[in-house]
Amino acid sequence: MLSERRATVRIWVNGRLADAAEATVSVLDHGMTVGDGVFETVKAVDGRPFALRRHLDRLERSARGLGLPSPDRAEVEAACAAVLEANPVALGRLRITYTGGVAPLGSDRGDAPTTLVVAVGATPRRPDTAAVVTVPWTRNEHGATAGLKTTSYAENVVALARAHEYGASEAVLANTVGRLCEGTGSNVFVVVGGRLLTPPLTSGCLAGVTRALVLQWTDAEEADLPYSVLEEAEEVFLTGTLRDVQAISRIDQRELPGAPGPVTAKVMEIFADRAAADLEP
After folding, report:
1. Same domain, yes or no, for 234 and 143?
2. pLDDT tens-digit series, residues 76-97
3. Other C-beta atoms lying within 10 Å of the C-beta of residue 1
4. What is the value of pTM for the model shown?
5. Is beta strand 170-175 parallel, antiparallel or unpaired with respect to 129-139?
6. What span, in angstroms and rounded, lies between the C-alpha atoms of 80 and 44?
7. Is the same domain home to 76 and 106?
């Protein structure tokens, strides 16, 4: 039965839907050989995407930052709609991948058209709390791809594997000057002295869609924070497309009993209510 369901999965590849077994791209695609691509992960609720406009705005910004031509927005929207219609899921991870297309081996781009792939898979609801670890590696806030959501995710894979080794679901990184930056796939908020704070984009963190909504819907503020704030914050939570707002109950060996704390719990409530009321905030 499971194999039959897998066989019916439909994926959008370069202008058309195809069965998963036939949905292929070239092994010479620049996204495959050197990670020359950008992507978005969008939450889908009962077949409808959440905050798709904001995600596509960021996809375009990331493409420009990488020097790729802007994706055809109408095509991306049509692809998302087609994939969601073809693959009904109650809660889904809608993945949009846009790459430089087929190119010679090496870093130089070729003249071939760009590649667009859109797929969706069912995902479970995240737990209300999670454990995180700190890691010795840093984000380069001055790098060419700082703040871009690119397919070059190897350093995130390494950091997340470290988190899993220590029984955590996320790793939190500092930037090159020891300031709090972000998680491998999330933004970080802390409560210090009753104030709700998150690192500014100048820290090198990604301009998260959920992060922006929390800043818009609550009294959260941006602040330049030392990495060590994780040792003293009264509350800590993560934001992300599939995490929404997720309280942190442990950082390395430091327990945060009672998570989610009162501030985090209120933000979780606000976000859930506002997101349910408007799928395109």
Report:
1. yes
2. 999 999 999 999 999 999 999 9
3. 5
4. 0.95
5. parallel
6. 10
7. yes
